[in-house]
Amino acid sequence: MTQQMSMNVEQLKAVKQELTRFMMMYKFALDEMNTKINILQEEFKYIHSYNPIEHTKSRIKTPQSIFKKIQKKQLPISLDSIKENIHDIAGIRISCSFISDIYKISEMLQQQKDITVIECKDYIKNAKPNGYQSLHLILEIPVFMSDREENVKVEIQIRTVAMDFWASLEHKIYYKYKKTVPEHLLQELKEAADVAAELDRKMERIHEEVNHCKKEDNKDQQTFILDSQTFQLPHLLMKAISESNG
Q: Catalytic positions, please?
């Protein structure tokens, strides 16, 4: 009896250790993706004098949530099955000011050599019937553990601030009504999504016009940043400095 109990304890320890390593694998993948996004933010801040990323939020599904999803999909209950079939265990949400920023960030992430694109769903060009808009990416990134290399999937959702606000509101309403939302609220949500989409399009047009004017104003000047301060230098001065150094 004592030997049997000891074996059960050892088996429990082994299962706990394997589950811990499994969850850590997704944490490390999330850390790597967040580092990549932070690098892009820093580069845009200091080189391009413009940051397309307003804010980011990341999360890892709990084991309980993963288990519920496995049961709902009627999949085998194993770590291999989870890794193969559940792609949103690690997730990052990126909020941008403009629609064009969404595709800009998506392209930069997809072009990185150590990232493999598994799936791309564009709910901006093809919004869901309820009005939901966002760009969803499933990306795979290598994670180097102490004794192995694992390719781990991370879900990236990229959307504008307006899209994010609408999605957050919809989630709260569905949670409050336990997914049985009254028809008149569903209609109002759809109308709100249309208004948000029109706002995004209008802001995009303003953004493009401002950028055009800015290019015209700065075509004879050069910009550089020093200690977080932006300086404008006339083109002739930059040319003179360049020729004197030559």
A: 155
